[in-house]
Design a protein that fits this description.
Elements: H1 2-40, H2 43-46, H3 60-78, H4 82-93, H5 96-113, E1 122-126, E2 133-140, E3 151-157, E4 164-170, E5 174-176, H6 181-189
Antiparallel strand pairs: 1-2, 1-5, 2-3, 3-4
């Protein structure tokens, strides 16, 4: 009887190891998509049924976001010139609180999907003399403008989070990693348990 319970428990654990990551990923995607869809879905504002009740059309919010992004992309690519972009950027920089939020999100977005991706160079940094090392991404190679010549900026994402730390590190302690940026990010975010 004891052997049967152990076998069943073993199967339970192995099943959980397969199902839980899949279920968590699917749940997170479903949650994010449904939140965006419900926040931006205007079908219940424009359409009502015969009884006067609002009609909710699932997926219309997501479709609205996708179409809006495509239209803005077409306009910016084909009609907005560099002087107009600079003028809008200067105007946004004059707004006190908006400036900080806008530029932070703009830089972070461009770091992942812009023409000049910032998280593309994974490195390993020796943190102290005991041999402790951290994996991060080289984001700036020249810090002489802020008074740190010979140092570089390295971003260290936190495991199981989208937050991270930015550290200024002496160039001698930074070594490139022999892995792609996506592999390094997956390795860090998973807490080092992701297969290499």
């Amino acid at each position: 009887m004891n052997r049967i319970v152990k076998a069943l428990f073993n199967y339970l654990v192995r099943g959980a190891l397969v199902i839980l990551p899949v279920a968590a990923a699917l749940f997170f995607i479903y949650w994010a998509v449904s939140k965006v869809d419900s926040a931006l879905n205007l079908s219940n504002v424009f359409w009502v049924d015969q009884a006067g009740k609002p009609i909710y059309i699932p997926g219309l919010g997501i479709l609205t976001v996708i179409l809006l992004l495509i239209v803005v992309g077409i306009i910016v690519t084909n009609f907005v010139t560099a002087p107009i972009k600079k003028w809008v950027g200067r105007w946004f920089n004059r707004l006190p609180v908006f400036n900080v939020i806008y530029t932070s999100f703009k830089d972070l977005t461009e770091a992942f999907v812009g023409d000049d991706k910032k998280f593309s160079e994974p490195v390993v940094v020796e943190v102290n003399e005991t041999g402790l090392k951290k994996i991060g991404f080289l984001t700036q190679k020249d810090l002489s403008k802020i008074g740190y010549p010979g140092d570089v900026a390295v971003y260290f994402p936190l495991s199981y989070s989208f937050a991270g730390q930015l550290c200024l590190v002496n160039t001698d302690r930074v070594k490139p990693l022999k892995m792609s940026a996506s592999e390094a990010m997956k390795f860090i975010v998973s807490g080092g348990v992701s297969q290499l």
